[in-house]
Amino acid sequence: MLNSKSAVSYASKKLLRLVILYLAVMILTFTLVQMSPIDPVTAYVGTSTKVGAEQRALIAEKWGLNEPPLTRFFSWFTNMIQGDWGESFIYRRPVMDVIGQKFGSSVALMVVAWFLSGIIGFALGILAGVKKGKLADKLITGYCHILISTPTFWLGILVIIVFCVNLGWFPVGLSVPIGTLASEVSIMDKISHMILPALTLSVVGIASICLHTREKTIEIMESDYVLFAHARGESNYSIIRKHLLRNVSLPAITVQFLSFSELFGGAVFVEQVFSYPGLGNAAVLAGLRGDMPLLMGITLISVLFVFVGNAIADILYFVIDPRIREGAHEK
Amino acid sequence: MSNSPIFRVEDFGVSFSQYKKGTERTELHVITNLDIELYSGKILAVVGSSGSGKSLLAHAIMGILPYNATVYGNMYYEGKLINKEDIIKLRGQTISLIPQSVNYLDPLLKVGKQVETSLRFSGKSKEEKKKLVIEVFEKYGLKPEVYDYYPHQLSGGMARRVLLSTATLANSKIIIADEPTPGLDEASLEEVLTDFRRITDEGAAVLMITHDINAAKKIADNIAIFYAGSTLEVAKIEEMSGDGSKLRHPYTKALLAAMPDNEFKPIPGVQPMPGDLRDGCLFYERCPICTDICKTDRPSLQTLREGKVRCHHAT
After folding, report:
1. Using CA atoms, how far apart are residues A106 and A102, in angstroms rounded to an integer?
2. Of A90, A205, B184, B260, whose CB has the highest number of CB atoms within 10 Å?
3. Whole-prediction pTM value?
């Protein structure tokens, strides 16, 4: 049904939006950094007194810090779109390299957490919705409300106390064992370091997808078409399989992809608590130490990350729901 | 009405339990003393104003009322008393509901697939089922492509025919149609009514719930008048015309007189609300021939001139 012409126009619209979004975010980021009290030269050379005022002035001159803001914005902007994202003050390496490396370990964490929260939340939500008002429903919604009102970092600390300190099942932090050569780190080491942060990160997502799915399940189970299915003698099992799953997965998938922003936000906390060297951790570090190039780079990457999540949600809706497909057709 | 009815509902009632204040529960009686009989090859039109319990009757028969509803009374299928479990076995196959609108179809499933559910016990292969569905569609003037349509692509008339196909394919002996006519243009209305007449002539017993007396007059054999959740009169459709002198109940006569084609003259007052159903005749406040007994005793349904009437003074 999906013809190539409408797909092209859809993709180009999305792309245009991304460009506009990026422009806005870049202007905002630049303005905020300009207004911040961080002095880039001090952030670069550190607070040591070995570098004199004369040398500082020279650095500022070389970086063009004396130019008017608009000129600086445009030179930053052209560098950015040419792929030169500058060098991180903390890591002394190009921002792109740092982000690439940190993103890799964060992605593993986020993907695991995302699938866990999606599958567990969806299943619990359906169970609670079908058993509305029963004990199972009360337990599940109670659990969700507790989770949703629990700060991620606090939960992370609690998890560390119970599973790492008291029970000693998992290592306390980092992504690999301390004092081990990179070549000797096994895949099991990596997994055992990732389980707790991923679980903690997934917990917040579970509550939102579960409550949303429960709400939709109740709505569908009370809908006219489920009523008619009952009147036609369809069994509960057949109604859940044929009508409920399909109709409820649509909103659930959307919520799950829209949760990319919360996932990223949650990762910042979780990585911090578990000292997990991912992108979230790097973002906090960059902020605290005034590493402007890295901070701005991470901001722009996270924009792309969240945008992609939202775009996937849109496209999936388009693929699954015949009503939306039809609507796009008529336009 | 000589031969025996295939389906009979006797002294039927529906009530809902509600929370009044805090944990205090009350029973809200919505249908009381409702009686109908269905015969093979005949259409019984059930007419009544909004809130008279028409749609509830359909849902109560199919066993799809909400969990806080209680159903009283007896149902008989082919002369045998049946209970809730029997209904669960019969529904969808022997007894089919034709719901009001396209909202009763799953929006994400192809229409043909949904109609095919009626054939799930037939043991036929996928291809055979599809062929059968398309055959029935053609019988009702639907193109074979409709099989691949989604519900939102159907017009009002098409939706009615698709829903009717579910009953046809199940080979149902009893069909309960809940408001099959609203929202249709004149041409579609005629077609839908013709389709209903055809399925009846093929042997089904049809209960047509409607508030459109004119539509009922076009195809029905008998007409049952509902008022505040009970049957006041069952008459032959021919009696529902002219000056109404053959009718038995004062409400039916008033209803006929109130129609635009006749005197267009309404009677004062309103139908009692559910939860406000008194002991006496439900109609006494508005009745021109009411006497003291009507205020205290609920009349029972009695046979009169081959019809039925619930009135102390019926003549």
Report:
1. 6
2. A205
3. 0.77
